[in-house]
Each structure stands twice: as C-alpha cells, then as structure tokens.
Amino acid sequence: METSRKHITIRRVIASTAITLIFLEYAKMSNCIEDIFDISQMVSNIFFKNNSPQNTTIINLFLLVLIIITAIVDIAILISKKYHQDEKQIKNLDSRIIDLCDEISSNKVSNEQYIEEITNEWETLIAQKQKTILKQKEDLSNASAKQKQYAKDIKDMSEGMLSLYYIMNEEDSLSLNKQETEKLLKCLKNIDPDFMDKLEHITPKSLTPKEELFCMLWRIGKTKDSIIQILGLSKDSYRQIKFRALKKLKADSSFKLFCDKIE
Hints:
Shape: rod-shaped
Largest sheet: none
Number of domains: 2
Distance between the termini: 179 Å
Order of helices and strands: HHHHHHHHH
Strand content: under 5%
Low-confidence stretches: none
Structural class: mainly alpha
Number of helices: 9
Oligomer: single chain
Helix content: over 70%
Number of strands: 0
C-alpha cells in the first residue's frame, strides 16, 4: 500500500514538475519568470517544513492550481493585450480607410472639375469652329450668288451691247421686248452712268424702263421714226410716252436743254 502511495506520489511530482517546467517555459516567454520564482520559493519553504505524503499532495495540488490560475490570468492578459492591439490596429485601419476615402473623394472632385473645364473648353472651341464654318458657308454662298449675278449681268450686258450695236447701225427692223429693253438699259448704265443715274433718281415720279430707254435713244441721237420702230410703238403711243417722259423730266431743271431736243 505504501509502495503504491509512493508511486502515485512520484507520478504526481513528475506531473507537477512537467507542468511546472511547461509553465516556466511559458512564463519565460511571457516575461513573468521572476514572479514564478518567488511563488516556488514560498512553496519550497512550506514543503521542507512538513514532508508528509498528504502535505505533498496538497502542495502539488496547490502548486498545480496556482500554475493553472497564473497561466489563465496570464493568458487572459495576453488575450486582452492582443485584443487591444487588434482594436488599435483596426482603428488605424479605419483611420487609414477614412483618409483614403477622403483622398478618393478629393481626387474625384478635382478630376470632375478638370473634366468639366476641359469639356467647357472643347465646347467653346467647337462652337467657335462651327460659327466660323457657318460664316465661311455663308460667305461662300454669298460669293456664289454674286458670281451667278455677275455672270448674269455680263450675259445681259453682252446681249444689250448687241442690241445697241444694231441700233447704232440703223437696223430699223429691230424691235425690243421687255427683257431686251432691260438688258439694253443695263448696258447703257455702264456706257453713260452719269446720265442714267440722273434718269433713275428723278423726283417726285420716277421713269419707267420704257421711258428711260426713250430718253436714252434720244440721247444717242436716234430719230423719232427709229424710236417708234425700236420700241414697237404706234404714233399715239409714241405721243403718250413722250408726254409722260417730258412731264417727269421737266420737274428737274437740269434736263431743260435735253427736253428741248425731243420732238
């Protein structure tokens, strides 16, 4: 029985020693070895004063419980430190995330402003280019219209010049219609612009195209019979156009000598 008790006691001591060694290694790693040495010294003093098996068992149990409690407390401290470290790290990460969000927001606003500025610049540039293109199209259209008008004027003057050539060469068979009359007047405006300008600006009543041509034919020295033939008039029509033309011309004293030559 005593041998069995001794074996149990030895096993307990060995177990306690192993646990103690494990705990000491843990304590060494946890930087609390000095506190453990103090506790061991106190337990050794008690052990050497009373060396009975029962006391040994109690001491071993006490030492085991103390080691376990100390380990639990130390583990709790380590867990608490780890928790606080993790919490601090999480706070740092949260702060970093907030800073990154602020930076992203700032960059987003800055980029949006830059894009808006570039967009406005391009819109302004495009609007200016479109305005320039429209102006150039308008100028081109006007130039094209003027070119067509010049071509028409040249053609009309050419035909008017031909009619004038026949008139000056006593082509009595020549009879002018309305369009030919207008073309001849356009030609005469370039040959005798001062006289034609005065005829066009007679006041208060202006001359009709036929009355203007009547006056221009007298101006270039055509006779009454030639004028009747050229204008396709009867004698009564001739007298009527002569009467109306002279009435308008006499309103301007500068035409007095010219009027006296008309028959």
